[in-house]
Amino acid sequence: xxxxxxxxxxxxxxxxxxxxxxxxxxxxxxxxxxxxxxxxxxxxxxxxxxxxxxxxxxxxxxxxxxxxxxxxxxxxxxxxxxxxxxxxxxxxxxxxxxxxxxxxxxxxxxxxxxxxxxxxxxxxxxxxxxxxxxxxxxxxxxxxxxxxxxxxxxxxxxxxxxxxxxxxxxxxxxxxxxxxxxxxxxxxxxxxxxxxxxxxxxxxxxxxxxxxxxxxxxxxxxxxxxxxxxxxxxxxxxxxxxxxxxxxxxxxxxxxxxxxxxxxxxxxxxxxxxxxxxxxxxxxxxxxxxxxxxxxxxxxxxxxxxxxxxxxxxxxxxxxxxxxxxxxxxxxxxxxxxxxxxxxxxxxxxxxxxxxxxxxxxxxxxxxxxxxxxxxxxxxxxxxxxxxxxxxxxxxxxxxxxxxxxxxxxxxxxxxxxxxxxxxxxxxxxxxxxxxxxxxxxxxxxxxxxxxxxxxxxxxxxxxxxxxxxxxxxxxxxxxxxxxxxxxxxxxxxxxxxxxxxxxxxxxxxxxxxxxxxxxxxxxxxxxxxxxxxxxxxxxxxxxxxxxxxxxxxxxxxxxxxxxxxxxxxxxxxxxxxxxxxxxxxxxxxxxxxxxxxxxxxxxxxxxxxxxxxxxxxxxxxxxxxxxxxxxxxxxxxxxxxxxxxx
Length: 647
Prior knowledge:
Elements: H1 8-20, E1 68-70, E2 76-82, H2 87-102, E3 107-113, H3 122-134, H4 138-147, H5 154-163, H6 168-175, H7 178-191, E4 201-204, E5 207-210, H8 215-236, H9 240-249, E6 276-277, E7 284-290, H10 295-310, E8 315-321, H11 330-342, H12 346-355, H13 362-371, H14 376-383, H15 386-401, E9 409-412, E10 415-418, H16 423-442, H17 447-457, E11 484-486, E12 492-498, H18 503-517, E13 525-531, H19 540-552, H20 556-565, H21 572-581, H22 586-594, H23 599-611, E14 619-622, E15 625-628, H24 633-645
Parallel strand pairs: 2-3, 7-8, 12-13
Antiparallel strand pairs: 1-3, 2-4, 4-5, 6-8, 7-9, 9-10, 11-13, 12-14, 14-15
Helix pairs in contact: 3-4, 3-6, 3-7, 8-9, 11-12, 11-13, 11-14, 11-15, 19-20, 21-22
């Protein structure tokens, strides 16, 4: 999920998401930033100097010590905590540029490096940024790093420093100096008391905003802060940094858990024009606000269809458009889906879009229309027609009114279920709603009648069953014959369910390596790899089969590394090339893939994972306990240490 309302619960969700990390496009900041930059100090210090701090003012860092752009006397200061390898951080950069353009006198932006530990190039990139800052080229290096997120190598840093005219020897010395490391560490630590735990995060005059939010989310807070700044400035006769310090100290706190923003209780969403899937008489209506370019929506989509398959006749799906503004292809993709609906093929087109999230250019959209048999000329005209544009925009407005702040966002008979939750969470929510619907079913109501009446009456969902006080039984999985690394008799076994096309799976690989290399765990860890290709990754199944072919021929880990290093190129011809590079017979691999020789073995891994409650990747079973997602290394260490202590 990309954005959430600023409740404590939402902050926890967003921080967790930011820490797990997600895929994204490289986005170069827009706008005339040079004209908006605050001039660099005439003589850059050996390390960015931190001015004397008034301990009564909870500033994250004195602004004078940071790269800053915008009006030095602005009424609103945005302190940005960011990571140069984080895709969401790059996505929000155009938003920041737009804010500086729209508020030339009232907004300034200060930047703090917050490199996340599982982004292996993030810390070196942060050091390069600080080294460039010391020579007065902070923002030029900043732009270059975000524009080249997949090339953050020492060679790139040196080349860019030379291109910017920096003193090469000084740049290298500054990158490697303890002072630079201390400066970065201080920025990271200073954000923590204010709720910063992931990236991107922003303190707007001290008010926390988490995630790559749309520009309107920033503007709402900025407009409020300008009004607050005007009032405080008039009352206390303050300006500049003194005004900022006062505003930061008195910043409004986020609402408490029971102070949800947006509508309370059940929410009625108009379904007049919504495409519907499932039986019209189903007692539970699941309204989905989604974005075809959002990877979490794709996961949520898979889970929702699993839910419907498991509960025939009990739940129907209503679709509403909610393309996010920073997904540049999303809005047209949603208009295309609406154009397909006009010709009666919405759900066929819906499937095409989710299966091809990385190919949503206009030409792709037209090709998908051809593939499902639409009248292409009519489709092209409808896709950009005012009527279709209005439908999509009306859905966005309806979602915002209903409290939708990001995607995917679901309502079950009006009750919120937010984010790409696992199947058990959906099933639990559905079971509760089915219980709440029983009195209405007994009155002879069904479908839309139940939906509208239950939202109107707003009964509380049936209480979830109390948790079983007995400890959960450990998950037992057969690992016989599976590829593994580490000590065969290690006291801790990590069973990794993963797939080679999943970006989160590749991001967790350095974490697994760090654990295996940690001297504290020498001889204590065994990592077993299980295949879990997701259905919406079109090359994942064959990549999994290729991995098992490599395992059978003694080259699993070599091919494993090749495929994770080349996730965007996993077609069969690519797999054959990688096989040859690691010393396998590429023709034998092709024959094995063509004959589906390892298909059943992959399916057995998937079935075993599903039996353990796994519905997405990466997921891990550590001595019988489930750990889900590309968690930071400390989360793994906690689970490992608990397993060791239990021995």
